[in-house]
Design goal:
- With 349 residues, the protein is α/β, with parallel strands linked by helices.
- It has helices at residues 2-41, 55-58, 71-74, 96-101, 141-156, 174-181, 216-226, 239-248, 271-275, 308-330, and strands at 79-87, 110-114, 127-128, 159-167, 171-172, 191-192, 195-196, 205-206, 212-215, 302-303.
- It has two domains: 1-52, no CATH class; 55-273, Spore Coat Polysaccharide Biosynthesis Protein SpsA, Chain A, CATH 3.90.550.
- A hairpin with an 8-residue loop joins strand 7 and strand 8.
- The longest helix has 40 residues, at 2-41.
- It is elongated, with a radius of gyration of 26 Å.
- Bound molecules: 2-acetamido-2-deoxy-beta-D-glucopyranose (2 copies).
- One 2-acetamido-2-deoxy-beta-D-glucopyranose binds at residues 72, 101-102, 106, 122, 124-125.
- Residues 82-220 form the Fringe-like glycosyltransferase domain.
């Protein structure tokens, strides 16, 4: 009886050890998996685990030696007030790129598309294949934006006052953007767009999709001091947040871009989500004070998440349909003209 008990206790002890070993192995396996996911995607799961930063050495100016630049891109103005660049990818070449090229982009002093290759693009589209060695992955967006900012300033031109970044599903009221930017000094660093706060509660970051403008001074600081530094400009899987953190390390913070009535100039969600006030609360930096038709005001600059036909519709209504209405309202004695010149909105500061 006694020896049986002894045996049993021994068995238990042994069993316990192997359970612990199994748990330990499971834990190690789990940890290694998390490590791999975090390393590869850059999603911060466990803060002290490393993230793949090889992009700093891999995705740099060396990639710019073998790029295609279209005739239209080469013939764009080399200096002026407003430089616009649009990040795109081959799947959007026949849809979004066409719509952007035929609506708001030509209203900038220079407009450029940055993409991976020239598939289905004519020489009449101003494109540069600066991402040709970069994979089309969400997790590589930071490297793309980082390269695009440097490229715009250092390789295309240092002689614009403002550099505006838009997406291929953004509509920009370029005339209003111009008027708005005129009140800032481009020799001081500015970073102007729609402020979000999630994971960056203190100063916030500008949403990438509704676009943001950087002054020449901000571009210079980025190119000279931030781009080369892993510490000042670290990777984050949210590329827009990463850019804000990068600029923030030199004290460049998003500007409060609401107008005097608290209305947003840049809209980051779908128009109807702003219309219905149906926005993801955890991202909201500035309290939502306006919804319904109030979101469509005379100072509105950009809309995001649009289909190509929606961009054409907006453009047609702004520059076609409304020109006659504006004339009627403002100068009732003048006979209506067939001119398609843009309505001059009143800018409320
Ligand atoms: C793109 O826009 C430019 C500038 O307005 C224009 O000259 C060109 O014809 C457009 N390209 C296409 C393919 O529509
Ligand atoms: C509208 O703006 C354009 C360009 O800024 C200017 O030339 C024109 O005189 C303005 N028209 C009116 C009615 O203010």
């Amino acid at each position: 009886m006694k020896s049986f008990l002894n045996d049993f206790c021994q068995f238990l002890r042994k069993y316990k050890t192997s359970m612990q070993t199994a748990l330990l192995l499971l834990f190690i396996f789990f940890f290694v998996t998390l490590y791999k996911i975090q390393y590869k995607t850059g999603i911060e799961i466990i803060p002290f685990l490393p993230i793949d930063v090889s992009g700093f050495d891999q995705y740099n100016e060396n990639l710019l030696v073998d790029i295609d630049i279209s005739e239209s891109a080469l013939s764009q103005q080399k200096k002026g007030f407003l430089f616009c660049w649009v990040m795109t990818a081959p799947i959007h070449h026949t849809s979004r790129v066409k719509a952007v090229n035929s609506t708001w982009l030509p209203k900038c002093d220079a407009g450029h598309f940055y993409t991976t290759n020239g598939h289905h693009l004519s020489q009449k589209i101003p494109f540069h294949t600066i991402f040709n060695a970069l994979p089309d992955s969400y997790f590589k967006l930071f490297w793309k934006t980082r390269l695009a900012l440097l490229y715009s300033y250092k390789h295309v031109s240092k002689e614009f006052d403002w550099y505006f970044k838009g997406d291929d599903d953004t509509y920009v009221v370029v005339d209003t953007l111009r008027e708005y930017l005129k009140q800032f000094d481009h020799n001081k660093p500015f970073y102007i767009g729609y402020r979000l706060k999630r994971r960056m509660p203190e100063h916030g970051y500008n949403a990438g999709g509704s676009g943001y403008a950087m002054s020449r001074a901000a571009m210079k600081i980025f190119a000279d001091e931030l781009y080369p530094s892993k510490d000042l400009c670290p990777y984050h899987e949210w590329e827009d947040l990463a850019i804000a953190r990068c600029l923030g390390s030199k004290g460049i913070r998003p500007t409060d871009t609401r107008d005097s009535k608290g209305r947003q100039r840049f809209l980051a969600w779908r128009p109807e989500e702003h219309f219905n006030g149906d926005l993801t609360r955890s991202f909201i930096y500035d309290k939502v004070e306006h919804k319904g038709f109030e979101i469509y005001h005379e100072n509105l600059i950009s809309l995001h998440h649009l289909q190509p036909d929606e961009m054409r519709l907006i453009h047609g209504i702004l520059y076609g349909v409304s020109s006659a209405i504006n004339k009627q309202v403002e100068t009732p004695s003048t006979p209506l003209e067939t001119s398609l010149s843009p309505p001059n909105g009143t800018i409320i500061q």
